């Protein structure tokens, strides 16, 4: 638990820098741009025409999640990465997720120990009002345990990301087995 607290503290400390400039920024739903970036009317932050990737984003009570993805795998676990924006006026907690394709899902943090990478379970992680959090490789992730099938590049599945106020539903995309970010495959830019 000591390592989990250290990872959580380290992560929260890193949020204090760049994201604090976005505090107080309020955008009515649907959100079409990242905080601080200008885009053409009718396009979202990735250049998609309005609603073009609506399956790849979820909204609930002022919280928006988008671009959820895992790497192609035949293993029994997978890490899910996603962008989460808290456009509400209250602080929230990210607590985990649920999906029919895995026995359980837990919030985990990256740790390098004895030259080996590990992801250790974490307690709920706070996200302040008006800020964004990106779950990425070598950072925070949602670990899908007990996968019920293999996943190939280009496939999708449904996931519910859980927060202290409830959950939001969205689709997650399967990327290449060695992907380091969401590819936007199937989206036009």
UniProtKB/TrEMBL annotation:
<dbReference type="Pfam" id="PF04314">
    <property type="entry name" value="PCuAC"/>
</dbReference>
<feature type="signal peptide">
    <location>
        <begin position="1"/>
        <end position="21"/>
    </location>
</feature>
<keyword id="KW-0732">Signal</keyword>
<feature type="region of interest" description="Disordered">
    <location>
        <begin position="23"/>
        <end position="59"/>
    </location>
</feature>
<dbReference type="InterPro" id="IPR058248">
    <property type="entry name" value="Lxx211020-like"/>
</dbReference>
<protein>
    <recommendedName>
        <fullName>Copper chaperone PCu(A)C</fullName>
    </recommendedName>
</protein>
<dbReference type="InterPro" id="IPR007410">
    <property type="entry name" value="LpqE-like"/>
</dbReference>
<dbReference type="InterPro" id="IPR036182">
    <property type="entry name" value="PCuAC_sf"/>
</dbReference>
């Amino acid at each position: 638990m000591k390592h989990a607290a250290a990872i959580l503290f380290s992560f929260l400390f890193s949020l204090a820098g760049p994201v604090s400039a976005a505090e107080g920024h309020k955008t009515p739903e649907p959100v079409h741009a990242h905080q601080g970036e200008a885009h053409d009317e009718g396009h979202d932050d990735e250049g998609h025409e309005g609603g073009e990737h609506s399956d790849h984003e979820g909204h609930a009570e002022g919280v928006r999640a988008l671009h959820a993805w895992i790497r192609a795998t035949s293993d029994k676990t997978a890490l899910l990465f996603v962008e989460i924006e808290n456009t509400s006026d209250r602080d929230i907690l990210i607590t985990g997720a649920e999906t029919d394709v895995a026995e359980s899902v837990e919030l985990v943090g990256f740790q390098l120990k004895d030259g080996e990478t590990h992801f250790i379970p974490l307690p709920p992680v706070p996200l302040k009002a008006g800020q964004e959090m990106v779950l990425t490789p070598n950072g925070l992730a949602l670990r899908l345990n007990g996968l019920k099938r293999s996943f190939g590049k280009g496939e999708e599945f449904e996931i519910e990301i859980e927060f202290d106020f409830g959950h939001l539903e969205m689709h997650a995309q399967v990327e290449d087995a060695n992907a380091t970010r969401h590819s936007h495959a199937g989206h036009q830019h």
